[in-house]
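Researcher: Structure prediction, please.
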Amino acid sequence: MAIDAFIANLDAPPPTFVEPSDNPDRPAGSAAGVRAPVVDTPVTEDTTHHAPRVAELAHVIINEVDPNGPDAVELFNPTTSVVNLTGWQIHIFSGLTLETTWTIPAFYLVPGAYVVLYETAGTNTSTALYFNDATGMEADFNYAVAFNNNLGQGVDFVRWGGSTILPSAPDTWTGSPTFVFDSSRTIGRNEQNDDDDGSADFFQQCPTLGKVNNACLVLNEFFTDLVDAVEIFNPTDRTISLTGYQFTSYSDVNTLDLTYTFPTASIPAGGYVVLYEGAGTNTSTVFYAGSGQNFAWNNDDGAGLLTTGVGGSVVDFARWGTTTVAPAGASWFGGVLPVGPNDNTSVQRRPSSEDGDRTSDFCVQVPTLGTLNRPCVVINEIYGSDPDGIEIYNASLANYTLTNFTVQLYDFNGALGVNYIVPAFTLAAGAYVRVVEGTGTNTSTLLFGGGSLG
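Model: Predicted structure follows.
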């Protein structure tokens, strides 16, 4: 029995899922969303942290709206079921006037997947649909987006500015967030993935169409050696100014070592900036804290804080080892991040760039300053014979806690056969563990997820 594997919090994106032609409920080759890594733990710039979890929601949601051109609406499936979106509609209103309606063609969205609907022309794929029908949306005017099913019933809704229009029943809405137009921002669902049908569900964020809502900038890597360094990454699709931002380092449990203010600087989409302690010549991608200015980190304690400037908002925070500080405005969840074998290592964010303010966002790896981080824990092998299952590999240089990770295994028809929450379990550096269907006694190399893939 072939399977489609999905693990919340791991780095390897699962394969595209397309049902076979003998499925009576779906035509052969019709589009299906690609499952993307999503967070399974609640988390608590615009500068707050935005990493939607898999919430207990019963329907597909509007996850992000980009009114900056080309206008786009992102849908996300937080459920455990494949959803047939064929014939469902997006209605876009200016004030009380219906400006445009997009009707979704034959399309299935699998659990944990995103699809982005664009106003421009293009070729439809498993993650993007094009309608060649301009919306005229703007972030600081009275607009609304309604998402209805093929029966005309309201499924989800968002409005902003002074819009007073209401969604179709049974959906409801209260309030309207007011946004100042900013071409570098989109309208995204909040970090709790709330769907309370009100203005508090949404905020202005940096664009993350097609993936987990994220902070505008993230602290991506901390290098501990003779010359400590921190890497800042821009995971969005637009350039972000770093001018006036401040980085603060902590060491020796909770000692504040230095605060550095960035001069005129920016980070292009997908780009990196590295800040080194000590003196040197600044470039567009490398900065130096100054003579005698040291982070004083080592492999077993440290922390970093990025803010928008003096008295500004928290952009990102991370800590490792014995450091326990979480400055005002910053959040951190989970226990102590296991440390590496020596100082010539890096504390790295997982390559998916998720920012849930938690221990599992990071692992210890070989330094990759200025380039893509190495994976932490990955799906390494898929078993399609009894018992069906997967192999997980810890590619990092330190122990990695899998406790409360979710393993989901799907059969050919998209049916969820195994939905397993890992109990207390730590995977050693360089070690493997299999997760299989059925029941049995767990060991250090084999976990039984229950269920069956047939």
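Model: DSSP finds no helices and 34 strands in the chain.
Researcher: Thanks, that helps.
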